[in-house]
Design brief:
Radius of gyration: 21 Å
Bound molecules: nicotinamide-adenine-dinucleotide, zinc ion
Low-confidence stretches: 364-376
Strand content: 15-25%
CATH topology of the largest domain: Rossmann fold
Distance between the termini: 53 Å
CATH architecture of the largest domain: 3-Layer(aba) Sandwich
Mean pLDDT: 94
Length: about 375
């Protein structure tokens, strides 16, 4: 078990990660002294798998509980679901000692954090992440929010949890697709910050896909440490530190939106977005071709997509212009400068973005151009 501190001036909290630690969850929640009535937001599947264990550890420490389930999937990250939950919390909140537990993947985490941030102008909440993606990334750092038809995460707040409790054992029931999706964010950490992590992934990805405890624990702790440090340095993404975590997300969000959030899951879209960013980096002379290949080889090896299919170039470009990472009329990309170093660049010429997308859409750009099939 590891405890990692996320240091913030007046709102520091711990990330606790390890295997078979769930029985200590109640005790750790009690130590926070944030309330007696836990409102647990989850979905039916996760409740069925792990609800009893949470009940046991929480009731053992004298908490009262109410479970609230929402439908599985990104569609639950909506204002409609949030307001229905808030009405239910108001009904439960009789003794005024309520706190929220987000028990699930990134969807539940983002939604629950958002509800916690707005209910009565903020009540405490705890992240109990159950996917690899949530344990390495989304549960940490206090970015909360819901989606609008116009775009993802358009309504939200920075609102930090009081504890992140990552039970590695919960990851054993993930499907291969979900494990891969989390791996995309792990690869991201390697590219922007950590060569040793990147090499570890090249050597050990089969163990991660087999959901072996040691490998999972290593990557969850390593990524949690990196994210904790970056969030401590730049909580609100104002100093160009936390921004680097958006590597692969500018094009990734556009690809996700162009596929209407059905075609690709978040990690798959981020994998494609990282390849587009790597292509832009190469075109700007930041990353040699060998660097692009190394990233591409790892993404392919773990079974994540390396080709954008099912969406048109214009749909991706249109979604890209709606992204909130677009500052005024300037676009902004996080680009790779070799493995483990990333830089922020603005105003990338549209042709370079389009060429890098096209390169991922069909065969090689050169072949397509020769065949006269490029829609410029
Ligand atoms: N806030 C942030 O900083 C941040 C960062 C990255 C991603 N995100 C958001 O996270 C979301 C994606 O998160 P996700 O990939 O965890 O998706 P998700 O929450 O939809 O979970 C993926 C699937 O795994 C299932 N699941 C969860 N835990 C399980 C378990 N232990 N065993 C078996 N199945 C399990 C869920 O029911 C779901 O079907 C996106 O909305 C994305 O925008 C937020
Ligand atoms: Zn992400």
């Amino acid at each position: 078990m590891e405890t990692i501190k996320l240091a913030l001036i007046d709102r520091s909290y711990n990330i606790i990660a390890g295997e078979n630690i769930i029985k200590a969850f109640g005790r750790n929640a009690a130590r926070l002294k944030i309330g007696t009535d836990a409102y647990i937001i989850t979905n039916e599947k996760i409740k069925r798998l792990y609800g009893n264990r949470i009940r046991k550890t929480m009731e053992g420490c004298g908490f009262s509980l109410r479970f609230r389930t929402v439908p599985d999937g990104e569609a639950s990250k909506s204002i409609k679901t949030a307001s229905s939950i808030i009405a239910d919390i108001a009904d439960y909140d009789q003794r005024r000692r309520i706190f929220i537990i987000a028990m699930g993947g990134g969807v539940i985490g983002d939604l629950s954090g958002f509800v916690a941030s707005v209910y009565k102008r903020g009540v405490p909440y705890v992240q109990l992440p159950t996917t690899l993606l949530a344990q390495v990334d989304s549960a940490i750092g206090g970015k909360t929010g819901v989606d609008l038809a116009e775009g993802k995460n358009l309504i939200g707040a920075f609102y930090q949890p009081r504890l992140v409790f990552s039970e590695i054992g919960f990851l054993k029931t993930l499907s291969q697709r979900q494990a891969r999706s989390g791996l995309a964010e792990v690869i991201k950490y390697g590219v922007i910050k950590d060569t040793a992590l990147f090499s570890y992934l090249e050597d050990n990805y089969p163990d991660i896909l087999r959901l072996k405890t040691g490998a999972l624990e290593y990557i969850v702790c390593r990524c949690s440490r990196i994210k904790a440090k970056m969030v401590s340095a730049d909580e609100r993404e104002e100093k160009g530190v936390r921004t680097l975590l958006n590597f692969g997300h500018t094009a990734g969000h556009a690809i996700e939106a162009a596929g209407r959030y059905k075609l690709h899951n978040h990690g798959e879209a981020v994998a494609l977005g990282m390849l587009v960013a790597a292509g832009i980096s190469r075109r700007l002379g930041l990353l040699p071709e060998s660097g692009v290949k190394r990233i591409e080889n790892l993404i392919r090896a773990v079974g994540l997509p390396t080709r954008i299919t099912g969406v048109t170039l214009s749909a991706v470009i249109n979604a890209h212009y709606r992204d909130k990472k677009f500052l005024g009329k300037k676009n902004r990309f996080v680009l790779a400068k070799g493995i483990s170093k990333a830089v922020i660049r603005e105003n990338i010429p549209l042709e370079i973005i389009k060429d890098s997308l096209r390169e991922r859409m069909r065969g090689s750009t050169a072949l397509l151009r020769a065949a006269g099939k490029l829609d410029r």
